[in-house]
Structure formats: C-alpha cells, structure tokens
C-alpha cells in the first residue's frame, strides 16, 4: 500500500520540443524557399511560374512537418516514459523507466547557439532501445528527474545491474 503512495508522489510532467528545434531542422528548406521566392519575383527569370509552384509545394511540406512537430510530446510518469507522435496515425511508445540503463546529452552547434539540447535514453527495451528527446531547453534538468525515478523503480522491482570490470 505504501509503495503505490510513493510512486504516486512522482508528479507526471510533460516535455515538448522547442519550436526553435523545428527551425533548426528545417533551415535548409527555409533558405531554399526564400531563394525561390526571390528568384520567382524577378521578371527576367524564364521559369518563374515553375519556381513558384515548387516553392508552394515546399511550403506545404513545411506546414505538414510543423504540424507533425507540434504533435510530439514526452510524458514522464512515476513508472513510464511515453513518447507520443504522429499526425494521421497518432502513436504512443512506452518505455518502462526501470529498463533505462544510460543517459546522454548532446548539442549540435545550432543548438548551442539557441540554448537547446538532445537527451538520449538507452534502455533494455526491445521495441524502444533508444529514445532521443530532441529540442529540449538546455537548462531543463530532465536527466536528474528521470534518473531519480529510474533508480526508485529499479529498487522497487529488485533490479540490480551487474557489470564486468577488467
């Protein structure tokens, strides 16, 4: 009875990638669209109409990707990490916290400029052995929060890690 009370004391929290991550990911397409608009706006360009159509298709693609990006959510409960994503077919992937074995933080040069990071969780789960939480704000201490829950769940289930050191 007391065990459930303790796991309930872990507040569920939600994390979404920053919108700046979307801009970083789509920056090459954004530049191509801007160049296309400038080129299509020049009267001397012989293929203005086709360039404009190409820009329109790329804009539609970027809108779809933005909608897809906004649908990403990471939910951390007392026992699971849930990764929700998808536009037409919404999907939820579950990672049991007690299966997480390692954590990594990384930052690309653009993420360093914008104050973002990627957090990668490695687990013993067969269906989701690696999950990267992309575009997390640099000052968010998500690994500390997850690690506390992981250690608690491992202890509660009697799971101990055995390592060989040579």
What's the short version?
With 166 residues, the protein is α+β, with helices and mostly antiparallel strands.
What does this structure look like?
With 166 residues, this protein is an alpha+beta fold. The protein has a domain of 73 residues. Helix content is 45%, strand content 25%. The strands form two sheets. Strands 1-2-3-4 form a four-stranded antiparallel β-sheet. α2 runs antiparallel to α3. It is elongated, with a radius of gyration of 21 Å.
Radius of gyration: 21 Å
Look at the helices and sheets and give the structural class. alpha+beta
Tally of extended strands?
7
Task: Supply the number of helical segments.
Answer: 5
* Biggest sheet, spatial arrangement of strands: 1-2-3-4
Strand content: 25-35%
- The chain-level mean pLDDT equals 91
Distance between the termini: 42 Å
What's the helical proportion of residues?
40-55%
- How would you spell out the order of helices and strands? HEHHEEEEHEEH
Q: What is this structure's SSE topology?
A:
Elements: H1 2-8, E1 13-15, H2 19-40, H3 48-70, E2 73-76, E3 80-85, E4 91-96, E5 100-106, H4 109-114, E6 116-123, E7 130-137, H5 142-157
Antiparallel strand pairs: 1-2, 2-3, 3-4, 5-6, 6-7
Helix pairs in contact: 2-3
